[in-house]
From TrEMBL:
It holds the Pfam family Zona_pellucida. This is DMBT1 protein. Residues 1-109 form the ZP domain. Keywords: Disulfide bond, Signal.
Amino acid sequence: PYYVGINQDLFLEASLHSSDPLLKLFLHTCVASPTRHNSTTGVYTIVKDGCVKDPTYAEFYSPHRHTLRFKFNAFQFIRSNPVVYLQCELVVCRAFDYSSRCYQGCVKRSKREASS
């Protein structure tokens, strides 16, 4: 566990351990949940489909393509449950492959029209 006070910035770093210098990391989705086993209902979304949802989220420069650095403001879900579990999905791409998911950035999915 990592302990941080409410409203303090929480700094994170994700690294890909590979000898290939031409790999790039992309933060696709990152959610916080009050329980370790639930990543769908009752979650707080920080990043979804590469789109930032939390206004306190910020990404920081990294000298390596295979390392991501970011932060957001710490919070708690319910007063009786001060524990927050993070679950983040990262995408690994080839550097300079501009057709890859890593270079598409935020992808807003359009809503489908319901048929009659």
